[in-house]
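URGENT: need a sanity check before tomorrow's submission.

F., can you look over the Lipoprotein record below? I want to be sure the sequence and structure line up before it goes out.
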Amino acid sequence: MPRAPRPLESTPLALLSVSLLALVLTGCPDEGVVCTAGLTVCEGTCVDLRGDTAHCGACGNTCSTGEVCQDSVCGCRAGTESCDGACVDTATDVAHCGACGTACATGQVCEAGACREGCSEGLLRCGGACVDARTDVLNCGACGVACPDVQSCHAGRCAYDVVTACFTNGQLVGIQAGTDQLGPRREFGAGVQSLASWDGFVLAADMTNGKLLQAAGGNLGTLIEEDSLGVVSGSPNDILVDPPYVYVVDSVNNTLQVLKREGTAQGNGLGLRTVGQVNLGANTSPQALARFGDTLFIPLFGTASSSFQHGNAVARVDISNPEQPRKVDTLSLTGLDLKPFGGGPVMPLPYSVTATRSAVYVALTNLNPANDYRPNGPGMLARIDPSTGAVSAIDLGAERCLNAGYVEAVGDQLVVACIGEALYDPENGYIATSVRSTGLVLVKDDTVVASYALNPGCQPGAPGCVLSVASRFAVAKGAVYLADTNAGRVFVVEVGDGRLTERRGYSTPEAKGPALEACPLDPRRPVSNAIDVTALH
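Structure tokens as predicted:
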């Protein structure tokens, strides 16, 4: 599935340069850590006492191995229960098969809660249990290999389900989907700007050193391979994995780079090598990638220095031979009815793209460059017919969506993340001081069917209240993991048929807990940029 784009976004928009983005890193001193409602400071970090296994119910109260923290109480994770003081899986435990205290006879195994003489085909006998070593967190890949902290077992390898990149903190952090538990944060890279995943590995495009970095999905702090992205201090906005190739666009150098896997994934990385590149044209500022057939669709934002005359379009690149990519043409977006507010000037300024079975959809920010790049029309989608190149517009509604930033297909629906209209304080590290119409919109059959408004969990303007600004997202196990570029949070919203239901956030009392503090605020900096999220399937 095409991933959401990777523009710079610590500042009001991607238009600001890498050097300006670097100002965010300097930040300003702070008196200390201030947490949003529902969170508590433990060891200098904001934590949720209701669900943090290291601080369950109180700072320092650590749950035992195998336990999780639910509603401030340590207990057995879903699918296990407490028997004789230990968390066991009664579906596989030979001493507690089907129920606590029900032991199998000598030589028997426990499978699906019943004692039997041997394991079914495809299952592995580990002691007295029949397990699927491809998915069993206690026997991942082999008997006795238990996955640490909140990792899951993917194809016989331990890894996190979701990974978030913390730009201002220089870290990666893993999340377990479903339970929404956070793993430990790991230092990684010098300026990771975008993420993707492939075969259990995390790909991280580092803008500072111009490298495509790799880490195993279960060992986020260890670099196992790095590949050149050509130019140091570029802006690698998007990574598209399309085996055996990886495509990367750079909005500063205006390039599309093609890498090919030529190694194996046996703990030594993917073995990528650059096999092709094409320049998309000066001042085009390519933002994202989506594939439809043998064509890549690449939104061109354009640059202020050229009055955006080379942007406001979508480039089509032929990849029938991926090692010799060829720019075919560009589709202009300037003829669309952008529904400007009060008839003022507005530009589509495309930000991201996704492909479905029948069409290509591009998120339009709909901004006025002459007015600090503030929205001057509703967030919109451009729908492209790949067979004819015809382009039409979908109005997402200004009351729920301004500055449409990211779009991804989820089944037969589209999820759009709306950055909103945010005002920033340049004297204080570009922290957002106000924001409206930021959140998610769900589109089905080219019609908006649901929306979700991002709520920071505190009163805007109140001391210590850091607002939330929607950013990129990933989808795992039927839920959107939505990053926040202002406070480093990750919101979790379930996607149903025509419905968006908050699971972790501050908008509804039915939520299972507050948003995840994936990238906690550093006391030295006023903002925390959770810059990207990827799912390891």
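My own read: The helical segments are 18-26. The longest strand covers residues 272-279. If you see anything odd, call me.
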